[in-house]
Amino acid sequence: MTIRVMLVDDQVLLRTGFRMVLAAQPDMEVVAEAGDGVEALQVLRATAVDVVLMDVRMPKLDGVETTRRICSEPDAPKVLILTTFDLDEYAFSGLKAGASGFMLKDVPPGELLAAIRSVHSGDAVVAPSTTRRLLDRFAPMLPSAAQEPQHKELQRLTDREREVMILVAQGLSNGEIAARLVLSEATVKTHVGRILTKLGLRDRVQVVVLAYETGLVRAGGHG
Predict the structure, then answer these.
(1) Is the C or the N end of the chain the one with fewer CB within 10 Å?
(2) Angle at 51 between CA 40 and CA 188, to 5 degrees
(3) Distance between CA atoms of 81 and 92, rounded to whole angstroms?
(4) What phi and psi values does residue 16 have, to the nearest 5 degrees?
């Protein structure tokens, strides 16, 4: 199955470099490109895309707002944010907007390709611990009205699901959560899947973001 990729960046040279790397892969095809967010949204209306590589700092419409608009559509492609700096406020905003992860622009080609495949298969490509560091740093930007632990969205969860959600937000893997709660890894995976479904979230990254926004986990990573 070929992964259909779209490149969105205002630097033509950078897009060319990414296209050459992706074109050499038997399971990937660059099906579209855009130099800004406005153009990207127009192209997406007429082109089937699986994964969007999204620059954040662009003219006309930045990558964060473009990501938000893309991810609000049904059956939207997955978005992978490309940023120049680790722990960048744009990466934080991109995750909140619905991106499945972020990568540094100077990432080795092998890591970029692995990230695209991971996002396409439904996984997030930001380690929860990295997301947590982002959120710890930018927690003051979260709306204070959302800092009530008994947030109505969380009332849909069972006590066990809530417990699993806190551990996901603290950066633990399924295996680590299983060991902590004395459960099988398969059971933890089932709980995570139910959390995603009940809360309407796309991946673990969004679980972490919501846990912070609702006050379930505070800056510092503790529930």
Answers:
(1) N
(2) 140
(3) 10
(4) -60, -45
**Contact criterion met (CB below 8 Å) for 115 and 80:** yes
Q: Let me know how long the chain is.
A: 223
The token pair that represents 68 in the structure block: 């938000």
Residue pair 211/153 in contact (Cβ under 8 Å)? The answer is: no
The Cα 166–Cα 223 span in angstroms is 6
Six token digits for residue 39: 């153009």
128-138 vs 204-213: helix crossing angle, rounded to 10: 30
What is d(CA 173, CA 128) in angstroms, rounded to the nearest whole number? Answer: 8
What is the rounded average pLDDT of the residues 111-127? 78
CA distance 150 to 170: 18
Quickly tell me which residue has 């969860």 as its tokens: 157
**Where are any strands of DSSP class E within 59-118?**
78-83, 101-104
Q: What is the pLDDT of residues 11-24, one digit of tens each?
A: 999 899 999 999 99
- Written as six digits, the tokens of 160 are 């066990």
